[in-house]
Every structure is written in structure tokens, then in C-alpha cells.
UniProtKB/TrEMBL annotation:
Residues 45-357 form the Amidohydrolase-related domain. InterPro entries: Amidohydro-rel, Metal-dep_hydrolase_composite, Metal_Hydrolase, MTA/SAH_deaminase. This is Amidohydrolase family protein. It holds the Pfam family Amidohydro_1. PANTHER family: AMINOHYDROLASE SSNA-RELATED, CHLOROHYDROLASE FAMILY PROTEIN. SUPFAM superfamilies: Composite domain of metallo-dependent hydrolases, Metallo-dependent hydrolases. It comes from Methanosarcina baikalica.
Length: 369
């Protein structure tokens, strides 16, 4: 440490290509001022922090749903019984949860993100204006870059009332994150999308999770971001690629709900920018190490690409290219892993080692800027 400058040595997962180099990084006032190569004899691994590109943090109030016994969604593949508004299990629980409890539970998940190496996240925030306010309150004082995407609390109200609420929501967050085009009148959704664009905010929507019946309608809204596309066909992906729309996949969540496996390799082959998220906190922790390991071992994707999906690609989607990679001039959002931990001792390729087997307890420290 020299004045306000911090020097960290080890194997660096460096630059946009995520190339492992032995050397050091210098950090001054939260900015990477130098990345140098030299022999260090350090077992530390210095890696970019994760970007969790799709969460539902309100679900933090109920982290152990009755899989199969009560909700029935796991056995019957009935995703609607879990998450479809307004009567899905999660929405019933959210309505019964106090504002104070909601904030406390979301803050616990945000702290868990920080402890497990995540520096940025995008949340699809239910509950209208109050839901957005709760997450903003939970974020107070935390060094996390957030993209909060709200949605109307009562979409069944008359269209003008819904649009009035949408305008109030857009004053308080980064954009709109809608549940799906089959859940709301398409004409109203078109007006919501137009309203969002007029506010110069981001419009995102779930599509192709339960089946592909809502994909074409979602594309007709010209969204900035699509979530899931689990049941997308090759033609669907070609349309997404032609429109230049990024996709966020949620492999663990889709596996648990029986929605299937997103065609991630095909998405990448089509030239689509793909990021990843942990989705509903009631089903999965916000631990991106688990998401990465699952993706690496289930899908036919190279480990470097998996790591990129969970870091740099998420940063791109959130409009923060200076967050995702370790290079001079970027923000210092990095995690230092113990390469000589009992878990990581013996790895030969640091990218594969982190992607396939690293855990939060391998983290020595995390820098957030």
C-alpha cells in the first residue's frame, strides 16, 4: 500500500479476453491504474466480480417454498402456480409481507451478493412504486451497482391507471421489467413500452420461459433486454440476433421449475450477447459461483465463455463496460481468491478452476468501487 494506492499480486484474469497473467494490479481511489506482468510467487487469483443480470429480490422473504407438495409446480411443470401474477405463490406471499420485513430480507440478499463476489445486479422489482422504494431503501450505503426495473402493482386496473403508475415508477428506477406478454393485454404493453422509451429508460420482458407462445409478441415490443428464451427455436434466435437484443439466462431456476434448458450455445452461435442471473431468490441463492458451475457442467460451453457470461457480458447489458474486466482505467470491482485453498489447490487452469469448482469460501477479499 502506497498512500491511497493498493498493489495486489497474483494470477490476474485480465482484460476483455480474460487471459490469465502473472503480475499485479494497482488500485487508486477505486480505479485500476496499472496492470503489470511480473513473477510474483503468489497463489492469489485476481478475478472480475460477478454481474447477476436477473434477480427477483422480493422473493427473499420466502426462501424454502414447498417444492412439489403444496405448490405442485415441480412435478406438474406448472410454472404459473409459482410466479404468474397476480395469484402465483410468490405474489400471494409478497402481498402478505410488511414493508419493513421486505426491506430487511432484500438487504440480507444484497449483503450475500457482496460476500459472494457480485458487484452489480439487475432486479425485476414487483410491487409498483412501493416495491421500487423498498429496494432503493435496502440498497442504502451498499457498494453495489444496481439496475432496478419496476412494474405496475395492479396491471388489471383500467389502462390509464396502469400507465399513470408506470410513469410514477419510471421516475424512481432504471426502467420497466415486465413478466411476459401473455400476462397482460398486448395493446397495453405496447403503450407501456412506448412510455418507457419516451422516458429514455430500459424496457425488458420475460419471454419463452414456459413455452414459445410469447416470443414473437415480446419481439414486437422492441425490448432492450429479453429474459429466459428457454423454449426459443433457431428461427426465434435468428430474429433476436437480427434485432440486436441481449438475453439473460437463468439455468438453475429453469431447471428447478421444469421450464427446460435455454439453448445457450445456439444463442452464442447466433451472435447474441448472453448474460446470466440467479432469478427467484425463493428457489436459488444469489451465489453466482453456483450458477457458473451449473452452466459449465450442464451445457456444452467453454469455461472462458461461461465466466464471460457471468461477468463481462452482464456488465455490458447493464451499460457499464468499465465494471466487467480488469484493465487500466476500469473500476476496481475485483475478487481475490485463495488459489492455495483446500478446494483450489491443484488447479492448472485458473479460468476452469474458478468456473467449475470455486466457492465463496475461497474468496480472501472483494473490492467494490
Amino acid at each position: 500500500m502506497y498512500g491511497t494506492e493498493q498493489v495486489i499480486s497474483g494470477t490476474i484474469i485480465a482484460g476483455p479476453e480474460l487471459e490469465p497473467i502473472e503480475g499485479y494490479i494497482c488500485v487508486n481511489k477505486g480505479i485500476i491504474t496499472e496492470v503489470g506482468e511480473e513473477r510474483t510467487y503468489s497463489s492469489n487469483i485476481i478475478a472480475p466480480c460477478f454481474v447477476n443480470a436477473h434477480t427477483h429480490l422480493g422473493d427473499s422473504v420466502f426462501k424454502d417454498p414447498p417444492l412439489g407438495k403444496i405448490s405442485g409446480f415441480r412435478n406438474q411443470r406448472d410454472l404459473d402456480s409459482l410466479v404468474k401474477p397476480p395469484d402465483g405463490l410468490k405474489h400471494k406471499i409478497l402481498r402478505e409481507t410488511s414493508y419493513k420485513t421486505l426491506i430487511e430480507c432484500m438487504r440480507s440478499s444484497l449483503l450475500d451478493m457482496i460476500e459472494t463476489g457480485t458487484c452489480a445486479f439487475a432486479d425485476f422489482r414487483e410491487g409498483g412504486v412501493l416495491g421500487v422504494a423498498a429496494l432503493n431503501k435496502a440498497l442504502e450505503g451498499l457498494k453495489l451497482y444496481s439496475m432496478v426495473l419496476g412494474r405496475p402493482a395492479e396491471p388489471e386496473l383500467p389502462p390509464q391507471a396502469v400507465l399513470d403508475e408506470v410513469r410514477r415508477i419510471l421516475l424512481r428506477c432504471n426502467g420497466l421489467g415486465m413478466s411476459g406478454t401473455n400476462d397482460l393485454d398486448l395493446e397495453l404493453l405496447e403503450e407501456i413500452a412506448t412510455c418507457t422509451r419516451h422516458s429514455k429508460k430500459l424496457f425488458a420482458v420475460h419471454a419463452g420461459e414456459k413455452d414459445r407462445s410469447d416470443i414473437e409478441k415480446a419481439l414486437s415490443l422492441e425490448p432492450d433486454l429479453l429474459i429466459h428464451l428457454t423454449n426459443a427455436t433457431k428461427r426465434d434466435l435468428e430474429s433476436v440476433a437480427d434485432a440486436g437484443i441481449p438475453i439473460v439466462v437463468c439455468p438453475r431456476s429453469n431447471f428447478i421449475t421444469g421450464a427446460g434448458m435455454a439453448p445457450i450455445a445456439e444463442m452464442l452461435e447466433a451472435g447474441i450477447k448472453v448474460a446470466a442471473g440467479t432469478d427467484n431468490v425463493m428457489l436459488n441463492s444469489v451465489n453466482m459461483f453456483s450458477e457458473m458451475e451449473f452452466m459449465s457442467k450442464i451445457f456444452s460451453i467453454e469455461d472462458r465463455q461461461v465466466f464471460k457470461i457471468c461477468t463481462l457480458n452482464g456488465s455490458f447489458i447493464m451499460g457499464s463496460d468499465s465494471t466487467g474486466s480488469i484493465k487500466k482505467g476500469n473500476k476496481a470491482n475485483v475478487m481475490i481468491l485463495n488459489g492455495s485453498s483446500n478446494n483450489l489447490t491443484g488447479i492448472k487452469n485458473p479460468i476452469s478452476g474458478i468456473t467449475r469448482r470455486a466457492r465463496p469460501d475461497d474468496i480472501l477479499s472483494v473490492l467494490h468501487s
